[in-house]
Amino acid sequence: MKKTMKKIESYLVNLPEITRFHDQFLKLFNEAKGSKSKHQAWKGGYRDHLEQCLDVASLLYNNYSWNFPFESVVKVLYFHDIEKMWKYIEGLDDVGRMVEKHKSRFYQEMLPDEFGIQFNEEELNALKYIHGEGDDYCEKRVMNELAGLCHACDTISARCFYDWRSE
User: Fold this and answer.
1) 50 close to 156: Cβ distance less than 8 angstroms
2) Secondary structure (3-state) at 146
3) DSSP class per residue in 84-142
4) How far is CA 108 from CA 53, 117, 149, in A?
5) Among 18, 61, 71, 154, which one has the highest count of C-beta atoms within 10 angstroms of its own C-beta?
6) CA 145, CA 50: separation in Å to the nearest integer?
7) Are 129 and 142 in contact (CB under 8 A)?
8) Distance, first Cα to last Cα, the chain
9) pLDDT tens-digit map of 145-163
């Protein structure tokens, strides 16, 4: 896979509410690390991680048939680790602490109220299970297809491309 990736802004073209959020927090977005130490752990690594996730998602989405729009994939991947914008810069401020402790509230209240960003049930499931089923793992499948695709993209970026920087 080549290291030059599409810029995240090209994925947001048809998502004006997310573009408005992105523009408001662009400085944090561009400076944040992807993690403390395990993947994309450099200044700007958060952007690199999300762009890698979206590039992998684009390849998989375009080569298989899915029952959801690509915009749902973009929304989930864009917001799945959103607390990192605050967490890995100068520590968590009030917004960052709220996002980290109450992510579902952030998704269901703050984003819709302040930016008009709405998530459907399938997207909320994907946001909840993008890092795996965890304690909810049981005989019943709880992670939907959107969550599975996003989980795969996140894992590929974090565990396979963890040290690749965009060029």
Assistant:
1) no
2) helix
3) HHHHTTSS--HHHHHHHH-HHHIIIIIHHHHH-----HHHHHHHHHTT--GGG-SSS--
4) 23, 9, 22
5) 154
6) 19
7) yes
8) 13
9) 999 999 999 999 888 887 7
